[in-house]
Amino acid sequence: MEDNAQGKTPEDLLRAFSQAHSLVPEHQENADNPSTADLRSKTTFSSDEFLKGLDAIFDTHEATEKAEPYLKQAMADTENAGDDAGLLTVLNETMGFYRSRGRHEDNQWIVQRALELGLKMGIEGSEAWTTTLINAATAMRAAKRYDQSEELYRQALESARKTLDPTDRRIAALHNNISMLYSENGNPEAARDELEQALSILQASSTDPETDIDVASTHTNLALVLLQCATESALVAKSSNNESTASIQDLQTSTDHANATSGKANCEHPSTDVDSLLDQAMHHSSKALEIYRNGHLEHSAHFASALAGYAQTCFAAGMFNQSVHAYRKALKVIKGCYGVDSDYYRITAANLAQVEESVQEAGANLTEAAPTKHKQNDTAIAATMSKTAPLPECSDGRPISPATDTKIGTSATAFTSPGTEPNPALHMSTSDPSAADSKPRISGLKLAREYWQTYGKPMIAEKYPKYQGRIAAGLVGHGSECYGFDDQYSQDHDFGLGFCLWLTDEDYVAIGEQLQADYEVLPQEFMGFGPREATARAQGGSRRTGVFRISNFFASITGYPAAPADDKPHEWLLLDEPTLAAATNGEIFADPLGAVSKTRQGFKMMPEDVRLSLISRRLGMIAQAGQYNLPRMLKRGDGAGAWLSIHEFVTNVCSLIFLINEPIRAGYMPYYKWQFAALRRLSKRMSTVLPDVCEQLETVLRLSSAACFGGAGFGEGGKGAAPAVEQIQGTVEHICAEIVTVLQQQGLTDSGEQFLEWQRPYVEAHIGSDDPVLHSL
Q: Which part of the chain is the DUF4037 domain (predicted)?
C-alpha cells in the first residue's frame, strides 16, 4: 500500500507494534469539538510546567521517592484536562523512568498506551511520532522483546527520514540505539555499521567534536562492539582447536590462531584480526575519556558508561589494574546517580566481580597491569583518569543510560553507551547440555515466542522466503496462557509447544495447506517441553495453534471475521466481554502486513455508544443486585438468594471497571475463572480508575459465607451473620459512592444520587444514536 500525503497508512503503522496490543484508532477525537470538550474537566495542564517539575525532582536527587507519584498525577491531570498531547509527553517520560528502573513489565502498558494515543491523535508524520517510536522501541529493547523493538526502530527511522534533517542529531541517536539492538542480538557487524553512521552525523553536526558528549558516547559504543567482534574471532580460534569454551583472556592467548581463521567470524569487516580489533577498541574507548577530559565533563552521568566501556577494553587488553579501577569508579557514578537498586548498578557490579574473579584465577597481580602491547595506551589513559574531577554524590538521576529518551516537541537527545550493560565478553561459557533435562518455569506466551524464534521463523525464512514479509505469528485466543495467567497447574492440558501462523485469504489458498504440514513436523521437544497436549475441545476446527486464515481465526472466536461496524450496535451487544477478551488477548510476535493487528484492534475499539450503553446496564444491575435485592434477601433469611445477589453485584462491578477504564486501554473482562486475576492486574496499572475496588470485592466474597449462612463452620468465630452483613452492606455502598464520583469526574453525570439506577439516564444522555437497543426503557 502506498504512503498517503500525511505519511504511512494505519495498516503500515501497525507494523510498529506487532504484539498483543491494538493500535489502529477507530476514529480521531477532536479535542476542540464542543460536544467532547463539554465532557471534560476544566482542569488545565501545562507540559512545560510538568517537564520543569520533573527536572526539579531529578535535579534535587529525589526521583526514587517522588518521580513515580509525580508521573501518575500528571497522567491523571492530562486526562482530566482532555490534553492528549500533554498525556503523550507524560507517557514518553514515564517510558524512560520505568526503563531506567528495570520495570519492563510495567512499561509494556505505557508503551502500548503511548502508541495507541499517538495513532488516535493522528500525529503520524510528525516529530512527536518519531520521538514516541524511538522511546517505545528503546523500552522494548530493554525488555528484551527484540522483534518488536527492531520493527519499532525501523518505523522510527522511516519516520525520522521524513520529519528530520539528515544531520539532525536525533537520527544519530536512533542509529546509536539500533546498534545496541543488533549488538544484543549477536550481530556486531550491523551494530558497527549503525554506530559509524551515527558518529559521522555527530561529527558533521558538532561545533566541537573534541568536547562533545554524544561523540564520546558513540566512541564508547564502537569500542564495545569491536570487543564483540574480537570475542567472536577468539571463539573461532578456540573452536578450531576443538575447545568448547572461551574467556576474555583468550583474546590474547589465541590471537595468532585467530588471525589465521578470522574470516570465519561473523564480523566480516576488512580488519577482523583480534589485535586490530583490540587496537581499534582501545582507540575508541580512550577517545571517549579524552573528550570528557577536554570538555571538563567528568561530572556527567554519561561518564559512567564511558568508564565501564573503558574497563571492558582494558580487561580484554590484559590491563587488569586499570579495568578494576575504571569499573569501581563507574560504580561510584552509578550509585550516586541511579542508586544501587537499578539494573545499571547490578550489572556493572557483576561485571566487576567477574573481572576480579578472573584475575584471581589467572594469578595476576592487581597492583600492576599485565604487560601487553597496549601498555603505552594504559599509561596515557591512567593519567587521563587521574585528572578527572570529583564525581557528584547525588541520590538519583534522570534516566539517561542505556538508551535514548527524547521529549515531545524538543530536540533534546541523550546519547549513551551500553557500558553498564552485560559484558558480552564475560559470558562466554557454552550451555550445560544437561540443563534441558528439566522443565524451566516459563509462561505459555514466552514458550510460544521462543519456539517461534527458534524453529518457526527460520522455517519460514528457508521454505517461504517470498512470504516472509506477509506471514503473521503469535498466540491469541482461548486458554490461560493467552491471558498470561498460566502457571504450573495449567500445564496438564492444552499447553505445550505451538503458536499461530496467520495468512490472508489469498496467501492461504497459495500456501496454507503446505505451511500447516511444515508446521506439524517442527521439532516436538524444546526447552524441556514435549508436544502440545490438546483436549478434545481444542482439536480439529477448534484447534488453538497452527496455520489459519485471519478471517476464519477471528470468526472461530467471535462469530465475525472482523469487528462489527459502528452502525451495528446490536451486533456489538451480542458479543459478550469474555468473547471479546479472547479475541484481543495474547501476543503477536510478527505482523508484517499489520492485518492481524488491525483485525484485533477492530474488536478492541468498541463504539462509544455501545460502551456507554453497557455502562448503563451495569449500573442498573449493580443497583438491583447489590443495593436493592441483597439486603432484601438477607432480611428474608434466604442465604442462597443473597449469595447469588452478591455474585451478580461482583460480576457487574468487575465489568464496569473494565468498561469505564475503556477497552482500548484496559481490555475486556475475561470469563469467570480469570476475572479477578485480570482485575488485580488492571488495578496495579498507573492511572487505572477505581483501583481499590478489587480488594473491596474480594472482601465481600470472603465475608459472603458468614453473611448468607450465619458464619457457623466458615471460620468466622461463630459470631453469626450480623457483623459480616454490616460490613458487606457498608462495602457495597462505599463502592457505589466511588462509582458515582468517577462518573462525575468523567463528565457522565452531574447528579450525586447514590442509588445507581438513577444514574442511568444521565449516562445514556451521552449516547449519540437513537437506536432503541442502546437505551433502557
A: 572-674
